[in-house]
């Protein structure tokens, strides 16, 4: 199935270019205030005006480009999934394709940080198909208006990952070599415990402080032992790990309760790319991610830039979690 999915790579890349152009045009033609208007409140997240641009482009593309049935999974679709083309059924589909047309909506609509288009392709194993079954992943940057370069990354399971960087004005593209950090410590590097939104941020910050103290020792007056980057975008965080910018990211929000706004499988459907480049992406207890491909499941995840960092940090993370009464499920 891994090799069989390869023919979908250029199709997905065309889809990403299609969405990228639509969203960039909207960002250039509309104000941040207009794009940040709440379209509606979904049962698991808020849908903004900018999200509607990408969702419309998504369905239009699949109806035009695909002839064989697929199960399309994305936020904003009825019940979170749709079989295309009609009138095919889910049982007839060969693939389940999970997409986040814009990851990092909040940063992009205010032109603070780039967003990302994400797609993961897995063989159709029914409703139990999960992140662990994804065999093809593509991740494409949606640049800021002032940004002329954008990156695209892709991976086929077991075949490594590749990337390119494109000048969006000239159209010129060149291979991009991405290399995760080889540092064995978080000292003087970026290490982040995600706490983007109001609600229990103090607990996450306290866990972060305990973890860093255990890993690096007591705070030195007037010194910054390590740093953090609260990039409100799971794909952006993964990119920072595989690009060598960050060394450690932990998104533990699902452990704190159902009231938390958390990452979902579509936010992490390209973690295959990071793993193919050697980044360790696991759940908080060191196990492979194994969430079903849907739009509702909350996903806790931890990224270590390399195995040495995992060996160094993971026991301290587990200790901090256990000190707060968290245990593996």
Descriptive account of the structure:
The chain has 329 residues and is of the alpha+beta class. The protein is built from eight helices and 14 strands. It has helices spanning 9-29, 32-35, 49-65, 105-109, 201-216, 234-242, 271-276, 307-323, and strands spanning 38-41, 46-48, 70-73, 81-84, 95-103, 115-123, 136-142, 149-156, 161-167, 173-175, 190-193, 246-251, 280-282, 301-304. The strands form three sheets. An eight-stranded mixed sheet has the order 4-3-5-6-7-8-9-10. The protein has a four-stranded mixed sheet with strand order 11-12-14-13. A two-stranded antiparallel ribbon has the order 1-2. The protein is globular and about 60 Å long.
Radius of gyration: 19 Å
Task: Based on Cα principal axes, name the global outline.
Answer: globular
Counting DSSP H or I runs of 4 or more residues, the number of helices is 8
CATH class of the largest domain: Alpha Beta
């Amino acid at each position: 199935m891994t090799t069989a999915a390869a023919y979908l790579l250029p199709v997905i890349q065309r889809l990403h270019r299609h969405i990228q152009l639509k969203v960039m045009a909207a960002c250039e033609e509309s104000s941040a205030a207009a794009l940040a208007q709440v379209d509606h409140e979904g049962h698991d997240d808020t849908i903004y005006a900018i999200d509607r641009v990408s969702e419309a482009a998504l369905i239009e593309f699949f109806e035009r480009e695909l002839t064989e049935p697929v199960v399309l999974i994305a936020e904003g679709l009825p019940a979170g999934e749709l079989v295309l083309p009609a009138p095919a059924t889910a049982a007839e589909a060969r693939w389940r394709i999970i997409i986040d047309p814009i990851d990092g909506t909040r940063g992009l609509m205010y032109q603070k940080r780039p967003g990302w288009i994400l797609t993961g392709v897995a063989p159709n194993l029914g409703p139990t198909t999960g992140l662990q079954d994804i065999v093809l992943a593509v991740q494409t940057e949606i640049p800021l208006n002032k940004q002329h370069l954008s990156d695209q990354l892709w991976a086929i399971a077991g075949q490594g990952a590749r990337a390119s960087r494109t000048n969006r004005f000239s159209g010129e593209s060149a291979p991009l070599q991405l290399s995760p950090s080889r540092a064995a410590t978080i000292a003087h590097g970026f290490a982040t415990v995600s706490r983007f939104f109001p609600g229990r941020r103090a607990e996450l910050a306290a866990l972060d402080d305990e973890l860093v103290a255990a890993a690096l020792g007591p705070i030195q007056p007037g010194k910054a032992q390590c740093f953090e980057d609260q990039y409100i975008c799971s794909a952006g965080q993964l990119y920072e790990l595989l690009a060598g910018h960050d060394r450690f990211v932990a998104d533990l929000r699902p452990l704190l309760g159902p009231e938390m706004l958390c990452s979902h499988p579509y936010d992490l459907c390209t973690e295959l790319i990071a793993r193919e480049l050697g980044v360790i992406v696991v759940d908080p207890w060191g196990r492979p991610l194994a969430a079903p491909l849907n739009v509702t499941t909350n996903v806790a995840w931890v990224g270590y830039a390399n195995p040495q960092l995992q060996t160094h940090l993971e026991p301290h993370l587990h200790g901090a979690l256990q000190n707060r009464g968290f245990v593996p499920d």
